[in-house]
Amino acid sequence: MFTKNILSIHKIIFYLLICSIQFGSAQEEYFSKFQIHSHNDYQQSVPFWNAYANGLTSIEVDVFLEHDVLYVTHDQEDIIENRTIENLYLQPIKEVISLMYGSQEKLQLLVDIKSKAEKTLEKLVVVLKNYPEIINNENIKIVISGNRPSIEKYPNYPKFIHFDHQNLESIEDTKILDKIALISLNFRKFSVWNGKGRLTADDYKKVKSTIDKAHSFGKPFRFWATPDSKSAWKAFSDMGVDFINTDMPNKASIYLETLNDRIYYNKLRSEVYTPTFNSDKKNSPIKNVLLLIGDGNGLNQISSSVFANGGSLTLTQLKSIGFIKTQSADDFTTDSAAAGTALATGSKTNNRAIGMDTLGNPLINITELLDQYDFVSGCITTDEITGATPASFYAHRKDRSEKEGIARDLLKSKLSLFIGGGSKTFENKGIANHFSILEDISLLSKNTDDKVGYFISEESVPSVLEGRGDILSEATKNGLEFLNNKNKPFFLMVEGAQIDWNGHTKNIAGIITEGIDFDKAITEAIKFADKEGNTLVVVTADHETGGLSLPQGDLSNKMIEGDFTTFDHTGTMVPVFAYGPHSEEFQGVYENSELLWKIIKVLSINLNKK
Predict the structure, then answer these.
(1) How does pLDDT run across 59-104, given as a tens digit for each residue?
(2) Looking at the DSSP assignment, which residues form a beta bridge with residue 590?
């Protein structure tokens, strides 16, 4: 009774789950590119419902005929009362059909016969006839595996009975071929691969040729006795296995159903610039500082762009490398406001605070500090200019959501240049009284006005994938010329903001393309540093986003697979790259709040004398 009650509870739970799962639209072909097969499904804690609720469309059940009852079991000695094919599979399928959610998707019930073939199959036919809604449903196939009658007897069985063919011998009789639903083979006869790493070249050829030969019959194909891992699932999918075996329905479903969204074949290119290194690590005066921040750009984000760009970036040419810890004052995992504030002010603060300390007092930021030493400053971003990271370099607000207040802070800021999105926020604020607003980025480099702004967009800035083009690198190049023409030392912050956005949405294509786009801006910064010889370039991130990992890829076709552990930021350290005079000062591991003080040190600014 206890077991039956537990099963009833689980059944209710899975009924609720399938309320959110529609059968899907009818397809011209019986199956799509791949299907997931719940191997030995009866061994799941909740048979059928677990697999079905996770979207699996092929389910395997072992049956044994005993005392005229079809028990669900592998062996006679393991028979448990009431665990019958009707209770565990046929009645649930009948219930699913009666619910009628949308267009009902294809479902294959693979019945693996463990007792005598013909007698068991004869009983199964009798039982199935009590379920006309199943046997007359064109979307459901009953396929017999395990012990089967001889192949020449296949045509003698009702049209709702099909068979699992388990060899690659040619079948000339079309009547027999018509009764075969799929071809299944033992994977261990072709390879001992355990699902870790990759198939050897020889094994790959054997396995692939087997799959291709099976497909020559015009039937779906399945391996059993397969390794059960992400690497294996992807390999079998890539090689064209139609039914991918698993004992982990939930994990396999989540992985395979999201695989297309986590794979990207890159076409964008950042032309890699090789620095001269003439000024790198030299003990010479620094005039200008360029700080480039890849929002959310952790080590794996950088790696994805490196591999998708053919194996290198301008960024990866740099030799002075360190790591920063990103924790905020009140949390292990920072947000962009606290991280941006730490980088801009040299003080850790609470999440959401912009240019304020933990008590809500304003902190002096680097643009305000350097203004006291006759520096001019600029901020460039692919976010709205009021976004958390750029705002940290000019604004003072208790919460990053105070967009109107941040906008007012921009008007009275020390910035000589801003470029970003969000012009709509500045309507009726008289921004033209404070900045000359340009209509074309190309007009910037020769502009001689004291304070200049350029809006990329009215609201959010489009992504690279949405056709933004090279505005970030163009803005960086033109912005550097504009600031350099002031004949004063300058500070410029450049943010590649949307690496972070795509981490939040688990979009590997966006991460890669935004990362490569960010590298184009880095290229302009390094070229400028080489030309001037007196410019320090620091490239870092405020934090990592998404918990990204790179399980697989292919350098030859620039394919990257990304996998994520979260939709949010993580607490992992992020890299720092530096180039130019005193770049070695940025090596090592340190807090994000130390970065500003390292910049002050290499600029030889003595704050005690001010």
Answers:
(1) 999 999 999 999 999 999 999 999 999 999 999 999 999 876 534 5
(2) 324
Alpha helix ranges (H) inside 289-385: 299-308, 336-345, 366-371
* Nearest alpha carbon to residue 472 among 486, 448, 454: 454
Active site residues: 336
- The number of distinct structural domains making up the chain is 2
Is residue 237 located within the same domain as residue 342?
no
Distance between alpha carbon 336 and the CA centroid of its chain, in Å? 20
Residue 365's nearest CA partner among 291, 426, 473 is 291
- Torsion over CA: 115, 119, 122, 123 (sign): negative
CA gap 24, 56 in Å, rounded: 12
How far is Cα 124 from Cα 372, in angstroms, rounded to an integer?
88
pLDDT in tens, 397-452: 999 999 999 999 999 999 999 999 999 999 999 999 999 999 999 999 999 999 99
Which residues are registered as beta bridge partners of 222?
A: 184, 243
Known binding-site residues for Mg(2+) equal 295, 389, 495
Query: Does residue 544 share a domain with residue 444?
Result: yes
Name the residue type at position 33: K
Annotated binding site for Zn(2+), which residues? 295, 500, 504, 542-543
